[in-house]
Write a structure and sequence with these properties.
The chain contains six helices and eight strands. It is an alpha+beta fold. The longest helix has 20 residues.
């Protein structure tokens, strides 16, 4: 796939008339943001496609699809490829009410903020790994479990040593 890396895209003469945002469909934060993006008024049409999906592979055969599962990627209709913080900024730029914020985030000072937000999201994803999820429920290691249909429940962990906590930590 030909295209410009996000850091070199400023000099491109190809206008962005549409964006495809690749998101991790197994990540609750990513799917929340995908739903939020879908509800926003768009100046540039967004297509929201699960990263690594058959559709993503068919549409963008030259992309590293394993990498798109680890970091947000946006692809412009002219072949432009944006990753990480640059993908967040260009996605905000596509939203009618968030374009001014995108312009501020494209400055050197704003880019540091965008990078920090991207790193914070990555850290959140790292601490909410798939091994804590079972179906649609999320389980903490201390006995607390959240299921959207039932809410929070607590079941004390098994205590084989006799030196276990008797109370919950949440």
């Amino acid at each position: 796939m030909t295209g410009f890396a996000a850091t070199r895209d400023r000099g491109a003469r190809v206008p962005v008339l549409g964006l495809t945002v690749l998101y991790d469909a197994q990540c609750s934060l990513c799917t929340f943001l995908k739903d939020w993006l879908g509800k926003q008024r768009q100046s540039v049409p967004l297509r929201l496609v699960p990263a690594g999906s058959d559709e993503a592979r068919r549409r963008f055969p030259g992309l590293d699809h394993r990498a798109t599962l680890g970091e947000i990627t946006a692809v412009g209709d002219g072949g432009q490829v944006y990753e990480g913080a640059a993908a967040w900024v260009v996605t905000l730029w596509a939203l009618r009410e968030h374009r001014p914020l995108a312009h501020r985030l494209s400055t050197p000072a704003g880019a540091r903020l965008a990078k920090g937000a991207t790193l914070a999201a990555a850290k959140w994803r790292e601490t909410h790994t798939a091994d804590r999820w079972s179906g649609n429920a999320y389980g903490w290691g201390d006995g607390w479990r959240y299921d959207p249909s039932a809410g929070w429940t607590y079941e004390a962990p098994a205590c084989d040593s006799g030196n276990c906590s008797t109370g919950s930590t949440r």
